[in-house]
Amino acid sequence: MANGTPSIPGLTPQTDYFTMILQVVFYVFFFIFMFYGQRIQMWTWLKTIENAVAKLQYMAHEGREITINMIKNIAKPETDPRSLVGQFLEFFIVQPVEKDPAGVIRRLEHVLDVRESRFKEHVKILAPNVNKDEAANIENTLEAALSVNLIYRIVKHFYLLGKKTKSMMVIMQIQMQLSLILRIAKAIMEALKAFSQGKPIGDGLGPLVIANLYHRYKNSQNEPKTILDYTEDITVHELEIEDRHAFLVRATGPGARVGKPGKAVQKLMDEYQDKIKRLFMIDAGLKLEGEKTGDVIEGVGAVIGGPGVEKYKIEESGVKYNLPMDGYVVKESEIDAYGPMKQDISKSVNKVIEMLKNGIQERTEKGDTIIICGVGNTIGIG
Length: 382
Hints:
This protein has 382 residues and is an alpha/beta fold.
């Protein structure tokens, strides 16, 4: 050029200024993130946790209102149950000491029994005039509301603690688990709504299989023997299945009960001892991500969840009497198990029964005595 300034083809003064502005902006953001990046990240996480706390607070409030309205509609109490329900939603249980493991199962069972009796006492105070099934539904609704409220309180505690101390470790740990925590809370809310409406839930798969077995085989013989309250909240049917003498064990419905199937199996084993040749168990089981709801799988062992008390009793009886145990599990997600029973799960009942029939025919002889135990909550299953 005439003035001696070098020229770059395609680059105008405007382009030069634009490039300089971009460089300045880049360096500004670089220094901001270098010195304040951690604080920005913490602020982002805190906002995410704050939103989750708000959702959980809404769930806890909704669960409380559903429970209160259920009690009002069913029991029609003379006084407003709101204060009593609110008081009970912070009920707690202290686990037995595990530093001395000897007898820990027995001590845990005692604590759980006391807890259950307290729940029943509280339901009697809230709804003294309801029948047993309605009382069981209220009890389970209360327990679900208590669980959602506990999740909300714990997440809120860590949110406020992290915000107060500005501890990145506390904030990061709760934020990384938020999706799973919200998933569990939503599943429990589905259970709460099902309990309040008396609808069968996915976890009732085991009792539903037993109910279908009972109706399918009772028509081919005289009226089978039924023992209500064989153990607390457990019903046992005695009938012939595939030319075998069978005891069908399940929680008593249609109220929301799980009962103590382990205690019932243990009592049957102690009563009949070596006459029992095999134990078959049916339960819902958590599926892995990507697996199909309603698929049925087969295995061995005591197929039962929970704190482990009932499983321990079954395993002890199995060892004592050298009892083979077969298990059938229907795959479900947490929301499937806690929420109203889906069609895919109810359709799996016939598949379970066919697999069970094959197992009975292949692994036992005609005339043998067997136990078939359906584990799960009997809400809505008569």
